[in-house]
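Chapter summary example.
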Amino acid sequence: MDNPSSPTVNTRAADEAARVKAADRAHVFHSWSAQELIDPLAVAGAEGSYFWDYDGNRYLDFSSALVYTNIGYQHPKVVAAVQEQAGRLCTLAPGFAVDVRSEAARLIAERTPGDLDKVFFTNGGAEAVENAVRMARLHTGRPKVLSAYRSYHGATAAAINLTGDARRFGNDSATAGVVHFWGPFAYRSPFYSATPAEECERALRHLEDTVVFEGPASIAAIVLETVGGAPGVLVHPDGYLAGVRELCDRYGIVFVLDEVMVGFGRTGRWFAAEHWGVTPDLLCFAKGVTSGYVPLGGVAISGAVAGTFARRPYPGGLTYSGHVLACAAAVATIGVMEEEGVVEQAARTGAELLGPGLRALAERHPSVGEVRGLGTFWALELVRDRSTREPLVPYNASGADNAPMAEFAAACRKAGLWPLTAGNRIHIAPPCTIAPQDVAAGLEALDAALAVADAHTSG
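The structure predicted for these 459 residues follows.
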């Protein structure tokens, strides 16, 4: 048998990496990318909180892939459950009652807040948002939907128009019936607020003004991320979500919470809405429900909205709605989370390790303007100047303008940490199951990489 470190084995690994990379470059069209300007890493395998390339370089994944490997890579119980289901029944049309589909829906409904007891399954988060918007419009008979500027809701037709960040620009049809508003963000307040309480009050007043001037009788839904994900891990101030709930009740508007990124333990609760005791009318989920092992998303539906379609057909559906293998992965994932106390672990990791550790980094590095987050979902806002809060790179920067963030991300990877960067931020979203020693290793790597960002500051 060849020694793993022998030249023969190393040559084979290099050849395999080259083959994988060549096929990717020849045939795979990548999301959000100029195809000739990217150089994807060829990955050979993954387990737990790590993945590795064909050269044996191992990376601690502080991105959870795209914030979805909540129980880490390759959990044996979920892998076994998918394998067992594949041997028994791989797929069946969505119109049938199937044991594992029913069980997945039951387990999800038990964990969602309030009376969100019906589940419509989709293939992912964007489709969940699409269908939530459709349900709200049909339920109310109204055309408009409100969403925040600092938001991301997916890349399908309605979802990308709901999205507030720059990825909307190339897709905006200007005819989707979407009105954007400013949500609260105390660090970069659009309302010139001095305190979180003032930010909450002014943001709610702005939202109500938007509703009034758009015409409440024309508004079907307000769609919000419970914690803003892609825009920067934006944790709403206390009272804001409750205020939106009250506003929706007053004007007969459907309240939709997008928990695609933060559901299933990410913030230290099954759903982030639990932090504020708020129940929406519709709740969108995906990602962590299967830890990304098989694509699955959905909408958890309140009794009132579900009742609209009790005797009136819902005009929507998907070929793979409630796919059997995906539902098996969901059942197993939720089981693992219960058995291993994953939600509680995420809460402890945030409160005892990530939060204190990141705040300590902020004290040492002038490039860190703010630390914010919950559970295993955090962000560092990187700045050139703490006093002015000038971002390390401009909004929607690319090319030379984005060089400081590109250098910082490269320094993370060099230290063995795979980062998730967005704009002038690094988002810290390791698996909810990350071990304390791996948190420490990740913080150490961040400490070294932030020195690169510090070099671009004014002091």
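To summarize the output: The two ends are 57 Å apart (CA to CA).
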